[in-house]
Amino acid sequence: MARWLRSLRASSLALLIRARVAEFLREPEAIFWMFVFPILLSSALAVAFRDQPAEPVRVSVEEGAGAEPRRAALEASGQVVPRVVPRAQAQQELRTGKAALVVLATDPPTYWFDPARPESRLARLEVDQALQRAAGRADAFRPAALEVTEAERGSRYVDFLVPGLLGMNVMLTGIWGIGVAIVQQRIGKLLKLFVASPMPRWQLLASHLGARLVFLALEVVALLLFAVLVLGVPIAGSLAALALVAVVGALSFAGVGLLIAARPRTLEGISGLGNLVTFPMWICSGVFFSADRFPDAIQPFVQALPLTALNDALRGVMLEGAPLAAIAPELALLVVWGAATFALALKLFRWE
């Protein structure tokens, strides 16, 4: 066993992985983007979207006959903050978002609101209920209410956000970390030297994947520890399933990184290709909001993206406790992406 380990440590592939790790550790800015930036970003977004008590709806009441009784009725509801203002000012407040709805001075009252804004639709319900009750309407029944507690873990925005940030970090370090490193080696004629050596070519590409796995463990553990210990993000599923999803995702994006680095001879070229590949996934793959918000017509494209599959699998394990069988379709899609891009990279790779 000891002899086998010594032989493995002295193999050309192991030496290449060690060299790649050492190269990375000499770049402090890379360490910042891999380990510090995700934690800073998740902290800032957790503060921005922290749990807060529901704010009352701001409503403008047009000056005129009956304005003051309507203001008093709305204020008595406790759910609305009304202000009596002239019509021109009310229109401006509605247009700029300072008021969610305007009650016009007509009889019966007219509700002026924007149906495209959720807070405006909510204001219409609250205002109508308050004014109807003030006019003498009696409710047929009073339903019971069961509210979700603010502190319930797993349902907060930060709980949704952390798996997305983890998936995004795996994507960025896989694509940029491997793609830029290979192009730099091509520019510095190192690839040409490797080709002249007796070492198999596949080992050079595999060494980038191996080094990627070394850093994957560190970046995933660092972000998850911060999320669990500081932000209180739950991990409902097994850690083994979570680790498997992260490894499959990292290998998938490593394949993408190898493919986009197969041809470029300049850093500008790899930067353009990297932005072209990562930008659609930044927007569409559910990092900051659900991918389901996009129209049905483009859902096949959205669901085929590897980052969408990775984020869905991470959220399934972390928030829903999903077993591997439940996330098998997402894992299969990641494997297809990784295998296809790695095979294309081997075929298209330019060594000089």
From TrEMBL:
Recorded coiled-coil stretches? none
User: What membrane topology term does the record carry?
Assistant: Multi-pass membrane protein
Name of this protein: ABC transporter permease
Q: Which InterPro entries match?
A: ABC-2_transporter, ABC2_TM, ABC2_TM_bact-type
Q: Report domain ABC transmembrane type-2 positions.
A: 125-352
Compartments, as annotated in UniProt: Membrane
What's the superkingdom here? Answer: Bacteria
Which residues span the membrane? 31-49, 209-233, 239-261, 273-291, 324-346
List the top taxonomic levels of the source: Bacteria, Pseudomonadati, Myxococcota, Polyangia, Polyangiales
The alphabetized UniProt keywords are:
Membrane, Transmembrane, Transmembrane helix
Q: Which Pfam families match?
A: ABC2_membrane_3 (PF12698)
